[in-house]
Design brief:
41 residues; mainly alpha
């Protein structure tokens, strides 16, 4: 059960990081709050 949830989370992260704009935003973020905001978009 928890393994399935873990794999789903990793798959979602992988899909997110395919987005170049998201990756660039994270790299330019000044702090963890900025990264969190980017991930919520």
């Amino acid at each position: 059960h928890s393994t399935g949830q873990h794999l789903k989370a990793l798959a979602r992260i992988s899909r997110l990081f395919k987005n170049q704009a998201l990756r660039e935003g994270i790299l330019k973020a000044e702090d963890s709050n900025a990264i969190y905001s980017i991930l919520l978009e």
